[in-house]
Design goal:
single chain; alpha/beta; TIM Barrel; eight-stranded parallel beta barrel; two-stranded antiparallel ribbon; 40% helix
Length: 275
């Protein structure tokens, strides 16, 4: 039995990431979708992508059934849906309904509201209350809530950081690591994956132009997004570490105006890591 387990583990590690866990965060194509929804989905299919995470922009005037039909036509699946903080706070059942309508396993919150650059323990406590309450509701229906840190959570608190406090008190939710927003405040994503090996279930793969200064404000110039492997983040090391962990999906995200050129090149980079 032990030999079988070891064999299966080795087999999983050898499976090509680009055709398995790799997906796309649809916010990357926020400028393309309003112009041509069917054509944009066809473009994603041409890239060999199958798994999607939505980006807060709804269905662009199509009914949900029409939108889902376009997904099916292009062999695409919405595996993760957006979960705005205010909606989680005021009507978490509508987030759950959206996830179940797509058959999505995950719902992700991308931002905790706070006053300018002043993110505090009170903001953290408020988020914990909202996330744990909604996450408990979701868990009963087979949907996992995750939070996507954005850089402002790396402020000191007692002997650690606010993000440590957030992670250690996450009873009913998990986390999505955006490697850009861990590296941008000066953190090492691999170190955090190793520090909390059971907390990160999803990931955004995004690289940053070499020489770009960072901050803890959760904001940066989107044009600093570059092809994976060409920037200052060690994407290869992150993927290598992530493939040994319980991470379900790694979503490519490119917020720059060069997205249509850069995403295919980023996919090729990920493919090269499996060779």
């Amino acid at each position: 039995m032990k030999k079988i387990v070891l064999f299966i583990g080795a087999l999983l590690l050898s499976m090509p990431l680009w055709s398995q866990e790799l997906g796309l965060q649809l916010y990357s194509l926020r400028n393309e979708f309003p112009k041509d929804v069917p054509g944009t989905f066809a473009k994603i299919k041409s890239w060999g992508i199958h798994n999607l995470e939505d980006g807060n922009d709804g269905t662009y005037g199509y009914t949900l059934e029409e939108y889902k039909a376009m997904l099916a036509k292009n062999d695409l699946k919405m595996v993760s849906v957006s979960a705005p903080f205010e909606e989680l706070r005021d009507s978490p059942e509508t987030v759950l309904e959206r996830a179940k309508a797509y058959g999505a396993k995950y719902a992700v919150c991308f931002w905790i509201p706070h006053d300018g650059n002043n993110f505090t323990i009170m903001d953290t406590e408020n988020a914990l209350k909202v996330f744990n309450s909604a996450g408990e509701l979701f868990a009963r229906e087979g949907v996992t809530l995750a939070y996507h840190p954005h850089g402002y959570e790396f402020r000191p608190y007692k002997d650690e950081l606010l993000i440590d406090y957030l992670i250690k008190n996450s009873k009913f939710f998990d986390f999505e690591m955006d490697v850009y927003w861990f590296a941008h405040p000066g953190e090492d994503p691999v170190t955090w994956l190793r520090k909390y090996p059971n907390e990160f279930k999803l990931m955004h793969l995004k690289d940053c132009e070499k020489g770009t200064p960072g901050n803890q404000n959760g904001v940066s110039d989107v044009e600093t997004n570059v092809v994976l492997g060409e920037g200052q983040i060690d994407i290869a090391a992150i993927i290598e570490e992530a493939k040994t962990m319980n991470i379900d999906y790694m979503f490519l995200e490119d917020e720059s105006s060069k997205v249509l050129r850069q995403v295919p090149e980023s996919i090729e980079f990920v493919k090269s890591l499996d060779q």
